[in-house]
Design a protein that fits this description.
Length: 722
């Protein structure tokens, strides 16, 4: 097959039945475009000739079925053609240039966007899947039709999953529930989302699916009369008010019921004891009029009304939601929307191709989807790991449920449980990086405060404020997480370079030289041999324990003097120690075996990948560490050390009621926080407690010990380990 192939007339009489069915579905396309689609089938059938699916069917039946799903959405000819050819680049000899020559560059880009990265080598299947997914999302950001083809592909694979072996079924089903169904929801494609969820549920938990499905059928049989009476009452009241409307009953899906039973701890009876209806009217004004009519028919339940027309969901969904108290004492959930809103609710971003709309950008599902995708594309630039990128995407795929106002009246939508810090990063990365507090509905609150829909949020910033690692525990959005990690990585790199510089200078000083005395060409030669691009990389490697400063110093001097490492000058004793403040991020860690504090005599040990692990000099493990002198680093505390440090106290007490509270109060009175308490020993008369506390230095610890001794309930207080 070459780009020069010329189209030939296609005889409908020889087309397989499944292609004829697709042709009937595509009746909305002009004749020339339909001819191009049939030509794509011919090219695809030729490319996949001899290939079969696990079920034994010719492989071409799969891409044609994918095209049929997209035809149901009313997609354009280029999308249908790309769907028919979506596996050709991955599984056949057809080249991208041939594809572009025959069907145009747009079709080639769409096919390339859904093609996995199978030709590249990866360490694991998970890494390959993550990188392929990352590639697809970037292609989505350029053209939304990429994800529509991928979702249709996944939907048909799920419909025909029975031919796969059990482990493959479970893996594909889990991936569908975790990633593809949430993406369909994020893009507003509720119909495809619902089918993906139910198919995934059936494959992952077949017994649970069967039991719930049977109970739904039984419950519906018992409720059919009640549903009919409510539907008739709604229709008659709307007609009486001269409001043309369609009233449709809604049925919960097995996955929806299972996930709510699991997540909200509700029984099946509680979830099924709700009647659901959708009212479709002509225009937005009629939605509000219909709301008044149904509220006049049945009494509304307080605080159960939501207006997603005035404030659409992030995926473009619009509707009025209300809950009424029905004639049988059970709640009635009613959704009121226009036909256009109904199309967007069912098809999401795909509704544009099937339903010509005059809605402004604020109501456009596509505009919102593109904004979300562009944010993902920006975030991935700062995310080196594909697995981390997938983690951030999964976080962002949770349903948007919190709608918040900025001081200027703009609306931001964030995932449930989002905090003020997430809001700050949603406004702008600089706002997040310098945030210090939030004013929520005029009240000053900390950044970790969880937000609720309808709140007015203002972020207070300070030029000196910077992110800290604890922020990662407070945020739920991928954007905030990526920005904080990026900032901390930058700080860690700076600290590592600075510390590595001091360590290498000290090693060179021990040999009568310094880094400034090493010629540039010698440094460049060493970096080239070590396969490092810059001096900063070498210094960071030293600080992180991946290279020994003494070995690097010896090698540099040998290169400078044209000698071998063995004849380089020996090291002499250097009495000056490297001073630490304790805030060297990513470079220092403190040993759990001895919990060093500012004021203690300390020694550093270079641990590969971790950097310097700080021990007290009297730590019992130091004798073993000194057997590797090249890894020991002479360090001492700086005069000005900030922050809190972990210490442990062993407290022997008289075992009587209230003793624990008395000791805890004494520790708190000394301005120390308690991290953990546990019993080391205990009998009727006495007990030994281990307290993990936070102190600023040795002096602060001594103050805590004095206060505990004064309580009169202890027989001994010791720093642990001694």
């Amino acid at each position: 097959m070459t780009a020069a192939s010329t189209p030939v007339a296609i005889d409908p009489a020889v087309l397989p039945p499944y292609v004829l069915a697709l042709k009937d579905q595509l009746g909305y396309l002009p004749a020339p475009q339909l001819e191009r689609v049939l030509r794509a089938f011919q090219v695809g059938a030729q490319a996949h000739e001899g290939q079969t699916r696990k079920s034994g069917e010719p492989y071409i039946t799969h891409p044609v079925a994918v095209a049929g799903i997209l035809a149901e959405l009313g997609m354009d000819a280029e999308t249908i053609i790309a769907a028919i050819l979506h596996d050709t680049l991955e599984d056949t000899a057809l080249s991208r240039s041939a594809l572009a020559g025959e069907f145009g560059e747009t079709v080639a880009e769409l096919v390339d966007g859904v093609t996995k990265l199978d030709k590249m080598r990866f360490g694991s299947r998970q890494e390959a899947d993550a990188e392929s997914f990352r590639k697809m999302l970037l292609a989505m950001a350029r053209d939304l039709r990429v994800i529509l083809i991928k979702l249709a592909d996944r939907l048909h694979n799920m419909r025909t999953l029975g031919a796969k072996d059990a482990p493959s079924r479970r893996r594909i089903a889990r991936e569908t529930l975790e990633i593809y169904a949430p993406i369909a929801q994020r893009l507003g494609m509720n119909k495809i989302k619902a089918e993906l969820q139910d198919l995934g549920f059936r494959a992952l938990h077949p017994d649970r699916y069967r039991v719930i499905s049977e109970r739904i059928r039984a419950a519906l049989g018992n409720r059919r009369e009640a549903m009919g009476r409510i539907e008739t009452a709604l229709s008659q009241r709307l007609a009486g008010e001269h409001l043309p409307a369609r009233v449709l009953g809604r049925i919960k899906s097995p996955w929806s019921i299972y996930s709510k039973m699991h997540g909200e701890h509700k029984s099946f009876a509680q979830l099924m004891d709700v009647y659901g209806f959708r009212v479709v009217v002509e225009n937005a004004m009629n939605c509000y009029m219909a709301l008044g009519v149904v509220h006049g028919l049945y009494k509304p339940v307080d605080r159960r009304f939501k207006d997603f027309i005035a404030i659409p969901k992030a995926n473009g969904y619009q509707s009025l939601h209300t809950v009424l108290l029905g004639p049988f004492g059970a709640p009635i959930e009613v959704q009121i929307r226009t036909a256009e809103m109904d199309a967007v609710a069912e098809r999401g971003v795909a509704a544009h191709w099937a339903y010509k709309t005059d809605s402004g950008p604020a109501n456009s599902a596509q505009a919102r989807a593109r904004e979300w995708l562009s944010t993902l594309a920006d975030n991935q630039i700062n995310t080196a790991s594909s697995a981390e990128f997938i983690e951030n995407v999964k976080i962002d795929l949770f349903p948007d449920e919190v709608y918040l106002f900025t001081p200027r009246g703009d609306i931001l939508s964030l995932p449930r449980n989002a905090t003020a810090l997430d809001f700050a990063y949603a406004v702008h990365t600089d706002v997040g990086d310098h945030a210090v507090a939030a004013r929520v509905d005029k009240k000053l609150l900390p950044l970790r405060t969880r937000l609720e829909s309808g709140q007015l949020v203002e972020i207070i910033t300070a030029p000196s404020a910077v992110p800290n690692p604890a922020w990662l525990e407070s945020v739920v959005t991928g954007k905030a997480r990526t920005a904080i990690r990026q900032y901390l990585k930058h700080l860690q790199h700076e600290d590592a370079v600075d510390f590595g510089h001091r360590m290498l200078d000290r090693a060179l000083d021990a040999r009568g030289s310094s880094l400034d005395a090493i010629p540039t060409e010698v440094l460049d030669r060493f970096l080239h041999e070590a396969r490092l691009k810059r001096l900063e990389e070498l210094l960071a490697e030293i600080a992180l324990g991946n290279r020994m400063p003494d070995v690097v110093a010896r090698h540099l001097l040998a290169l400078r003097d044209g000698q071998s490492d063995d004849t380089a000058p020996g090291a002499r004793a250097v009495h000056e120690k490297i001073r630490i403040t304790g805030a060297e991020r990513g470079v220092l860690s403190f040993a759990n075996c001895c919990h060093p504090l500012p004021g203690d005599a300390i020694i550093g040990y270079l641990s590969p990948g971790k950097g310097i692990v700080v021990h007290r000099e009297e730590c019992p493990n130091v004798a073993e560490l000194r057997k590797s002198p090249e890894r020991c680093v002479a360090i001492e505390w700086d005069h000005d050390v900030q922050g809190d440090y972990r210490a442990e106290l062993r407290i022997e007490v008289i075992n009587r009621p209230g003793v624990l509270a008395t000791i805890a109060a004494a520790i708190a009175a000394a301005d120390s926080n308690i991290e953990n308490v546990e019993y080391a020993e205990r009998d009727l008369a006495a007990a030994t407690l281990l307290f993990a506390i936070e102190v600023k230095n040795r002096k602060h610890l001594a103050d805590v010990i004095r206060r505990v001794r004064r309580t009169g309930v202890v027989s001994g207080v010791y720093r642990y380990p001694l």
